[in-house]
Write a structure and sequence with these properties.
The protein is α+β, with helices and mostly antiparallel strands and 233 residues long. It has 5 helices and 13 strands.
Length: 233
């Protein structure tokens, strides 16, 4: 997979003395040139994440909860047999308590016959069952087991499965290398613009970094850096 980092530079342009002597006071502020460059580096994915949604139903909230707990324990044991540790199975209740963990589900109306001393009539009855919901995030660090995990999950009747998200957890070296390359490219662009204008770049005034998320880069962060250059003294 590819990870990209973008670097933006803001440079002050040095005006030659012969031109600066002719400049008006209001023109004394240094001109600026802005450039941007992007560098990409390949990184190896080492983590796959898939989210599972499933439920259990019964006639009371407690019974539905017990069924769901048994279903969850069975899933954990099955994935554990594949080598997925329990701390890599994160259920939603560990993140936050969410509404709808147990919901009442009205059933279709049914009719029963009632008899009185004077007549027989039908009475509508609506039953209610209770659905207990669970969401588990499965973190797979051995990517060769992704297919086996999905087969195991579907074999237990769980069909609400998210797309598999791949990411790299160690991108520091690739990030630093790409940032260095992007910075050099942006500086070369600024130098070219200054030279073509008969000017020169000054010294660094400030440097900052701002992470920006980008879709399609496997959950990696894109870093934007900003630099300013002051006139040489």
């Amino acid at each position: 997979m590819k990870a990209a980092w973008s670097v933006s530079l803001v440079c002050a342009l040095m005006i030659p003395l012969s031109i600066a002597a002719q400049a008006r006071p209001e023109d004394s502020a240094p001109s600026q040139v802005r450039t941007a460059a992007t560098a990409e580096r390949s990184v190896q994915a080492d983590l796959a994440i898939v989210t599972l949604n499933f439920f259990a139903e019964d006639t009371t909230p407690a019974a539905a909860g017990r069924k769901l707990a048994a279903k969850t324990d069975s899933l954990r044991r099955a994935l554990g047999a594949l080598g997925i540790p329990r701390d890599s199975l994160v259920n939603r209740s560990r993140w936050y308590w969410w509404p709808g963990r147990i919901v009442a589900v009205p059933q279709p109306l049914r009719y029963i016959q009632r008899d009185t001393p004077t007549r027989r009539y039908s009475e509508s009855v609506q039953d209610t069952i209770y659905r207990a919901n669970e969401t588990i995030e499965v973190q797979i660090r051995d990517l060769g087991k992704v297919g086996a995990v999905l087969d195991t999950v579907m074999g237990r009747g769980i069909t609400q499965i998210s797309d598999v998200r791949f990411s790299a957890t160690n991108v520091t070296a690739a990030q630093e290398e790409a940032l260095r390359e992007a910075t050099k490219r942006a500086r070369r662009q600024a130098d070219a613009i200054a030279t073509a204008s008969g000017m020169a770049l000054g010294a660094v005034m400030s440097l900052s970094s701002q992470p920006v998320s980008r879709y399609g880069l496997c959950a990696l962060k894109e870093a934007n850096r900003f630099a300013s250059f002051a006139p040489d003294r």
